[in-house]
Amino acid sequence: MMHEDKPARTPRMATTPNMARAMMAWQRQRDIMLQLAKTPQSSSMESALNPYHFDLITPDGTIIDIKHQSECDAEAIVFIENISPHFVGFEIEPDLVSFNIKSTLAQLGLDGVGVEYALDRAAGCAQVRVHLQAYGALARQMLQLIQVGCSVGKLFAADLRRRVRNPNYLSRMFGRADRNGKPLLSLGGLHGSSDLILDKVDGRTIAYLSLQHGRLVYSETMQGFLPSLAKGLTAGQSMRDLLRLNQEWNPHLPRNVDDDDILLVRTLPLHIRTVFGRVANELLAEGYRHTTASVLQPDTQHSGDVYELYGHSKRELTDIPLEFFTLEAYREHVFFADRDQLQVCLEDDHALFKAFETAPEPQGNRAAVFVVKGEQLLALKPEDWVIRETRYHEFPGPQHGSRHAMMVERYIEQQPSQAFLKAIINRGITSQGILLTRYFPSPLMKRLLLSDQVQLCLKGLYFENPSSSAQDYFSHEDRALLHDLYKFAIPVYWVDQATNRILQYVERPDRDTGMFVPQESVETFLKATMFGIYGSNLLEGLFEKELCTLLQGLLDMRKDVQHQFLDHETPLALVTGGGPGAMEVGNHIAKQLGILSCANVMDFRITDDAVVNEQHQNPYVEAKMSYRLDRLVERQAEFNLDFPIFLTGGIGTDFEFSLEEVRRKVGATAATPMILFGDPKYWQDKITSRFQCNVAHGTIKGSEWLSNCFYCIQNATQGLRIYRDYFSGTLPIGPSGPTYPNGFATVDVDY
Question: Does this model's pTM top 0.90?
């Protein structure tokens, strides 16, 4: 969870003679930290992705001054540095921040309570006055060995906004594991245990851990081990495992506590990866208090098997109550399926458009953010995005070997999405979520996007613009990346300003290409029979009324036809080039009739060498794919029409006619009827001489039958007659059908 920066808290520690040296040392450390702060650092969001810190705790602090007041207690000044700027303790109420002594010391009977705190966000450090209290002989002996330089504990920020309130938040983690197979939450095994009781108390989730019979005691060798333990703490070494070598479990001793004593009890091993746990002292049985070593961290595998208590009670303790605090949203190990609010938000196009509006200016810069919960999506701020200035690169080519590889790596590092993808791979992000990016990712990001870890974590990729250089048009490499993402089950969505819709990339069965389709129309696109309009971008013609009647007749025909291409369960879609003229007429009619209106949009923007009219996308397109000019032939091949309809057109229409003819000749497409709308004389002038020339020279020998795939009509009634005969199996079409000398059949004349 990201928070807006607030001014650092004013130090709350009074200066006393005993603390003068400590304050001077702190000031020196602060000056160093402030100097470091002047050097360029990564963005706020990028630093939050660091997998080596949590925002509710600080690193361990060391003693910079200590005064022993008696054999049982002392006052120590603890200095903590290298605190993340995202430590929540910098911004919540001061009384919610507490000092937590190391469990190694607590298990010896030494408690440490924070008395006064001074936190400095700018310098990334804190100073705490800690009261050290010894319970028992071992603790008193250890207290005398504590000296300046000992690592004794850290701060914990009990942010009430992060308190787990619903027991289901925890219970759903039972039986689940992370990418390495380690349990997310369990007591004594992967699938949980009946020894863990979850309840709701005072509006928060409480887990009661049942205690095992007996208590821990120390062997006679422990006293001789204490000096080594003190040296280990000074050196910053973890001493917990060595401490255990001197502990013995006695199952017959009672679990109660006396004055000047420490009670060490044990539960089953608690695996906790998804939350912080903290002993709820106020819910302990009367007479018991837990030491400040009460926080269970999510980065330890056996974090909850020993608990240290003091006080006075003859009644045996039976369980330990724990309350819980969530991690940063990125690190909760939460599954996308559990994010109900996020899924609701993603069904709201308006919410996604608003989210992209928070991306910082200028629009030309690349920007990306990873979102894991609905609350985060709705509250995005400019500082939540990772920003990169757009730079254009020319790579030297594979023939330059190492130099080329190095430049590619540098280019990848300059992509804003790289910060999040790397964090997923490095476990800085463990929750599943979606990636928002201003521009569709570079194909050079494929290696990261298709990695095993990212594939498991990334549940949607949303972009606003296909390209920073070519605007709304995808390159060949872009479409290859779209295909790979689709095959790897990573959904891709276009937050499209032109249609004001969220469009999902979908590929039709048995095709390696697809379109961006409105989410509610995906099933329609996958099942639809594809009709298409080819014609001039300059002329609308006089076809609109008849074309509307023709398409409406096809919709009505579905009710009483049973054919693989047409029946009552098969929807229709219509594809054009997406431009003006005849294409606009087709898309307009389709939208009016409730037929999915699609387009393969070409980049015909005017250039210095332009010989075509610029063709803006018409406003009636619902589903689309876009192409750059160098992929004109590829774009045409990807219309994949079942039933083309030709209107008056020029060179582009001639090319489309030839391509549809070739597709049927080579068997790439079944022999289906193609409609030629208009005056037979027009189509004779355009088609007949070419067809007859090919027949005369024998260049289409054996393929003359292609002429029976084309039918010239003047009205919708004639067209519907052709379609009905085809769907009923009575249309003479294909290699066994007739040859028409004009290269096509004229309805009511030849057929």
Answer: no
